[in-house]
Amino acid sequence: MRFTINGSKREADPDIRASLLDVLREEFALTGTKKGCDHGQCGACTVLVNGRRINACLTLAVMHQDDDILTIEGLGSSDTLHPMQQAFVRHDGYQCGYCTPGQICSAVGMLDEVAKGWPSHVTDDLSAPVLNDAEISERMSGNLCRCSAYPTIVDAIREVHEA
Amino acid sequence: MSDVAMDAPYRPAALDRAEQGLLGKPIDRYEGPLKVSGAAPYAFEQAPEGTAYLAIVTAAIGRGRVTGIDAAAAEAMPGVLKVIHGDPRMPAGEGNSRAMPTMGGDEIFHYGQGIALVVAETQEVAREAARRVTVHYDEQPGRFDAAEVEVQQDHKLGFLPPVNRGDLDAALAQAEVVLDRTFTTPIHFPAALEPHATLAWWEGEQLTVRSSNQVIGGAKGTIATALGIDKDRVRVLAPYVGGGFGGKTGVGQEAVFAAIAAERVGRPVKVALTRRQTAYMVHHRSPTTQRLRIGCDRDGRIGAMGHESVAYQNDDSAFLEPVPFGTLPLYAGEARRFRTDLARIDLPATGAVRAPGEAIGTFAVECAMDELAEQLGLDPIELRRRNEPTRDPTSGKRFTTRRLLDCYDEGARRFGWDKRESTPGSRREGEWLIGMGMAAALRGNFTVNAEAEVILGADGRATVKTDMTDIGTGTYTILAQTVGEMLGLPISAIDVVIGDTDLPPSAGSGGSFGAGSACAAAALACEDILTELALRMNAAADDLRLKDGAVTAGGRTSPLADLVRDRPITARGKTSPGKESQATSQASHGAQFAEVAVSAITGEVRVRRMLGVFDIGRVLNEKTARNQIVGGMVWGLAYALTEDAVVDPRNGRFVNPDFGEYHVAVSADVPRIEAHFIEEIDDSANPAGAKGVGELGIAGSGAAVVNAIHNATGVRIYDMPVTLDKLLSSLPPV
Ligand code: FES
Ligand code: FES
């Protein structure tokens, strides 16, 4: 199978039972993407596939022939941080850090959804969503943070959105 | 070695001079860039080449024995390396430095207990093979229903013996006003987002274990005991831990299993519990029944206080939730009775989860105080003020720092408490009933042993080493800040090395004692370095001024690197409890406030805002401390409203063992939260002057929410969590 992962062409021959998450972590050693539940319940495994955020634990690797996959490692490395990564550091949008790559990938994907005008459950004007804090929280509620750094996560995302 | 037992208050002079201006500042996390880029390695990650995967077969019955295991089908699968069972070193449950589980038996104490191991080349094969292992049982009837089990008053479990002072019954009989209420609290999962995971490998006789663990010094001994080998043969690493909340204080079955498996297959082995396995193989906080009795006069002066509870444990574990721990020093009152009875049950182990005792004990007492204030026609803060003790009302010991009254005042002012309607149910916005509530927060402070080493190198950089863990608590950062402050170095000139039992022993992360003790040990090590620098400067240590990597004394200034040259300075610091610790009553304190909106139609509760003011001694890093406190407040919110692990009483299984049905807070549940500190350095707590932070936030926050629900609706619920079904039938007419 061929994928584009973080901009590079990669090949693998995954077990048909393997989730995209396990292939990223165990085969490609991209362990920035985390496993919190393996059941689509926590968002720790969020990656961007063809620009959209998905739970990598809920999809089999064999379903992603030729897909363009962006993980936290592709967003920015520790010395060249993406603006969203910088904002999480500045606002302390984490504690243990385990949910963090998923939060960041999810936030990047989410801002793109808003830019495209996609409404959410709490959107007043469905034709023109405005990203206030309630919208950020609603749209980020698929990403659990057991450390409960939610207020600072919202701060970080708001700042990137406003920049 | 600079060795300071807390026989008297102690504060390193250099922390007072604070020339670098680093300690306490809200600086970004030291390890932040690694975490946000996914480069920080957690237990399961960055394993050596050739690491095999372990999957655990768990018990499918709730009580009984394993009579046979048929592994042939699993062993026949390509890629399976070994199926392991019946190894006498396999623990039946979690162990720690105080108590070990049954080893190597065939007894099943609870559903979901680990009983056999499958090691395979890949995760997929291991998982499938584990399903093909057939286990035969002799199933026995289990005690699964908390309402049905027998309660023992006479037991030796737990660290908190019963307290009986004066004659509680007589004092209650004489009191002008008596409140007698019984509260129940649910099973509470720690549910760290990183599941328990361990990577183990052997090099000859030497075992190395990288494990998601809060207290690796203890884990080293526990793993050695389980394996029957010398402690020196075990090294435990935990550079990054994806949350703990008490659930990773001991050594879970999986850590020992990984070590056994690695030995048996002669390769590194790694294992991560599945999310559902964490519900069974990791301890949870016991459910409790708590009877609160408070007797007072018409002015609200308390003369009698009883806090008597029942908590649960299985037959193979020794912990007991210290329910009234936070009630002991909280309010005045001569006659006192505090007791926790034990009920044995055949469920997964109960254990320490974030603020054992206070998280649920202060919850009940703070809801009771709210109701008592209402009965007396007093403001809830006024009732608390009238019962603020001047010495510990249970032990008679003097308090060290206690700014509870200031926390109430500042909290009330910042929150706008004066806008609270004292008549419940009188504020309404359309469908929503609005209310405000408050509660006291208290968490006992522990002084513990800790050591650290600091090396001032030839390049003028300092390295601090200790076997502490950072479980999201900010350990990396506050250690760097402490050393920077002591030695006059910017944060960029400091390296922090933790999470390795080859380093000087710390107390680990638990009981909120990690930050204060580790920073104290690091500061003490720096004091020795200052002494040596003074010698090299030919000056008195107290005359040294250190800032930005330069030392000034007697009019001379020298770069640190020049003073060190080819003679790096290595020093050790040690802190331990002493006479002052014994003679005093110590705690962190706070006041919690919440505003809620309750739908008069559906009973849905929305927390609109929360605010807390806290007294935690020295604030080591304002940013990380605040984040942790806020996290604790969110825990209180979720504990009050949604978290509730439900047992099926027919078979001892959880109905909701994962995040799909066990509802931790999500972003949409969490409102704007403010946390403020009243900083008074506690020189009796430890040489860093810092009291506990990580657990304080959950104490009282749930009670503030529940009290706000009452203020909004006039309904009091005594059975946690306050879900819509409990509220709905009592709500005022729409
Ligand atoms: S690991 Fe994929 S959602 Fe939890
Ligand atoms: S930072 Fe720990 S789970 Fe979010």
From TrEMBL, chain A:
GO terms for molecular function: 2 iron, 2 sulfur cluster binding; metal ion binding; oxidoreductase activity, acting on the aldehyde or oxo group of donors. Keywords: 2Fe-2S, Iron, Iron-sulfur, Metal-binding, Oxidoreductase. Residues 1-75 form the 2Fe-2S ferredoxin-type domain. Pfam families: Fer2, Fer2_2. The gene is yagT_2. One of its GO terms (cellular component) is periplasmic space. The keyword Chaperone does not apply. CDD domains: fer2. This is Putative xanthine dehydrogenase YagT iron-sulfur-binding subunit. Gene3D superfamilies: 3.10.20.30, [2Fe-2S]-binding domain.
UniProtKB/TrEMBL annotation, chain B:
InterPro entries: Ald_Oxase/Xan_DH_a/b, Ald_Oxase/Xan_DH_a/b_sf, Ald_Oxase/xanthine_DH-like, AldOxase/xan_DH_MoCoBD1, AldOxase/xan_DH_MoCoBD2, AldOxase/xan_DH_Mopterin-bd_sf. Its EC number is 1.17.1.4. It comes from the Bacteria. This is Xanthine dehydrogenase molybdenum-binding subunit. SMART domains: Ald_Xan_dh_C. Residues 565-588 are annotated as: Disordered. It is an enzyme of class 1 (oxidoreductase). The lineage of its organism: Bacteria, Pseudomonadati, Pseudomonadota, Alphaproteobacteria, Sphingomonadales. Residues 578-588 have a biased composition (Polar residues). Keywords: Molybdenum, Oxidoreductase. Residues 37-141 form the Aldehyde oxidase/xanthine dehydrogenase a/b hammerhead domain. One of its GO terms (molecular function) is xanthine dehydrogenase activity. The gene is xdhA_2.
